[in-house]
Structure formats: C-alpha cells, structure tokens
Amino acid sequence: MIKGNQLNKVLRTGLLVLFVTIMSVQESFAQNTPVQNEIIELSKNKWQLMADKDVEALDRLFDEQSVFVHMGGSWGKEQELGIIESGGIHYKKADVHEVSVEVINDTAILLNRITLLAVVGGNEVTNPFMVTEVYIKKGGDWKLGSLSFTRLMTP
C-alpha cells in the first residue's frame, strides 16, 4: 500500500517524466531547414577554429569587409585575425546554450546564447554573451560578415 508521501513522490516523478517527454516531442517538430543546419554547423566550426587559433581557415571564412564588435571596441577582419593569432584574445571554449537562424535571401542571421571561456590580455575570463553572426552567400560559399558580442547580465 502506498502512503501519502510516497504517492506524492510517485506523482511528481510521473509529471516530470511526462513534461520531459512532451518537451522532447515538441523539440523534434522544431526542425531546421538544410540551410539553417549548414549555418549552425558553420558557426560551430568557427568557434573551434577560433579556439585552435586557425587564422588561415578563419581568413577564408571571414569576408574581406567583415566587422567584429566586442566589449572593448569594434574593428575589421585584419585586426580580428591579428588579435587571434597573437593571443590578444584566445577564444578557448564557447558553450552554446541556444541557437537560432533566420535566412533572408542570401543572408543568414544566427543568434547564439553562449558562455565564453577566453583569455583576454593574459587573464582567463568567463562571460555570458548573446552573439550575433551574419553570414552572406558569396560565389556559392557562406562568408562571415559580422560577429557581435553582447554581454548578458545573467548567465
């Protein structure tokens, strides 16, 4: 025979399982298009290239007119690549918590909510950011046109 406290525990566990199941089913219906998946994968690879300081691959990914907005300022492609290569900013690890992509013709706008572990000026820091990435389709390839970091007040 199940007592009152045990019944409550069983009911709470059952409701939790039901909630998780519903959320999983709902997530499976929120499918991305092939282009959205391509942009998400491109962004994921970009974070790894930045962590690896692979400026040659980043040079191919970044458009010549690309712009980068950080907490400390904004600049173009050459300065961003120089900062990455020198270790002025070392993007060690980006934990991506949420991602969404909107595609408008030959432009894709990706939003990432991340926690970024980086070394800036020799100091290791962790910050929560909403990152906006704008990709432009040029000659059949997606190029990064803009990367902007907005620091969030809560993680």
User: How much is the radius of gyration in Å?
Assistant: 20 Å
Strand order of the largest sheet: 2-1-6-5-4-3
Structural class estimated from helices and strands? alpha+beta
Mean pLDDT, all residues: 86
Q: Point out poorly predicted stretches.
A: 14-29
User: What is the count of helical runs?
Assistant: 4
Report on this structure.
It is a single chain. This protein is an alpha+beta fold and 155 residues long. It has helices at residues 4-29, 34-51, 55-61, 77-86; strands at 62-70, 73-76, 89-104, 107-120, 123-138, 141-151. A six-stranded mixed sheet has the order 2-1-6-5-4-3. Strand 1 (62-70) and strand 2 (73-76) form a beta hairpin. The longest helix has 26 residues, at 4-29. It is globular.
Describe the SSE topology.
Elements: H1 4-29, H2 34-51, H3 55-61, E1 62-70, E2 73-76, H4 77-86, E3 89-104, E4 107-120, E5 123-138, E6 141-151
Please provide a brief summary of the model.
By secondary structure, the chain is of the alpha+beta class.
Keywords:
alpha+beta, 6-stranded mixed sheet, 4 helices, 39% helix
